[in-house]
Design goal:
By secondary structure, the chain is mostly beta strands. The chain is 0% helix and 38% strand.
């Protein structure tokens, strides 16, 4: 039908008079069950209309005239873009806030299924390591006790009173960190301060006020008195007394504070590896830098060049006591989603 015209924004619109007027089909408006944000459309010669959205694929066999001829064809179509991400180690649980599809929880005891937890697209999701199946999302209020099976119901709620700064859809983020020795002692970077809880997050006390937004921080597992904090617009800080006082250190090239990802050696609290992270829509590039004196000086530890865009880094202990560093690559127009790693003084692979 030559007079039928579709327009896709956050809602799918349809015109039957060549574009003179439009009516809402589905999305945020309209009577058809279509997920918001229309990404692509294909109109076939046989009259089929295919619509791709942030929620999957839709097919109408009569130009969205009746709901009986509309089908959501998402079976075996699996994929999520996680703005937030956290993983448990005591129990194999993964949680995260997904782009435009709410929060999810995935565990080994759910098999091939996952829970849709609700929420919007917040960069959130934290596993409380010291308690069984306890998870937290900042857009779902209090914490949740997950069911033992994917088909079961949540076993309860619990109070978690403070959430970390998560800006730029989670690209510029703070975090929740458990004390290496005490699972109930949690630290959160919220607003301009570092906070501490000694009751699994039910209440928090002010530990240190930096005067600017607290972004990423971490605690040394080798010496928990050592804490490193990246503060927006202020720089990189180190504490040697469990967070009572902080000393400003030197940040890596290209950072004035607030855009670092770093890891601490599990063998030496003075050894730190850092890189610049980037926002959702920018292309900030960085090498990886290493400090052996607690952030007083840095040496360039990679030579990736301009074709590599680092999203984050991770560290793993080894049987021979050498740091194993992983660089997770993200990019526009380059090879994204790949991982490079380097052990000790070896080469990047």
């Amino acid at each position: 039908m030559k007079n039928i015209v579709y327009a896709g924004t956050t809602t799918l619109f349809k015109s039957t008079n060549g574009g003179a007027s439009f009516s809402a089909v589905g999305g945020y408006q309209g009577s058809f069950g279509i997920h918001p944000d229309i990404q692509d459309m294909k109109l076939l010669a046989n009259g089929d209309t295919w619509v791709a959205t942030d929620g999957g694929m839709n097919l109408s066999t009569n130009n969205f005239t009746t709901s009986a001829a509309h089908f959501a064809l998402n079976k075996m179509l699996v994929g999520s873009d996680l703005w937030g991400f956290h993983q448990g180690w005591n129990e194999d649980i993964i949680v995260g806030g997904r782009y435009h599809n709410g929060n999810t929880s995935i565990t080994d005891f759910y098999g091939e299924k996952a829970l849709r937890m609700g929420g919007g697209e917040s960069p959130t999701g934290w596993v409380i390591q010291g308690k069984s199946r306890h998870v937290v999302f900042d857009d779902l209020g209090s914490g949740w006790i997950l069911p033992k099976t994917a088909e079961g119901k949540p076993e309860g709620r619990f109070t978690f009173s403070k959430h970390p700064n998560m800006e730029g859809y989670g690209a510029l983020r703070s975090n929740v960190v458990a004390h290496p020795y005490y699972s109930g002692q949690l630290y959160v970077g919220s607003e301009n301060a570092l906070w501490v809880s000694k009751d699994f997050g039910s209440t928090f006390d002010l530990l240190y006020d930096f005067g600017s937004k607290v972004r990423y921080f971490d605690i040394s597992t080798q010496n928990p008195d050592v804490i490193y904090v990246d503060v927006a617009g202020s720089g990189f800080f180190r504490s040697e007394d469990g967070g009572k006082t902080f000393i400003k250190r030197v940040s890596i090239a290209g950072s004035s504070g607030g855009n670092l990802r770093f890891v601490i050696s599990p063998y030496n609290s003075d050894v730190v590896y850092a890189t610049l992270t980037h926002g959702v829509w920018d292309e900030t590039r960085s090498e990886i830098y290493k400090s052996t004196n607690g952030g007083q000086t840095w040496e360039k530890w990679s030579t990736f060049g301009t074709s590599i865009l680092i999203k984050t880094i991770a560290i793993q202990p080894t049987t021979d006591g050498e740091d194993l560093i992983y660089a997770f690559i993200d990019s526009y127009g380059y090879n994204s989603g790949t991982v490079k790693y380097r052990k000790g003084n070896g080469a990047w692979i």
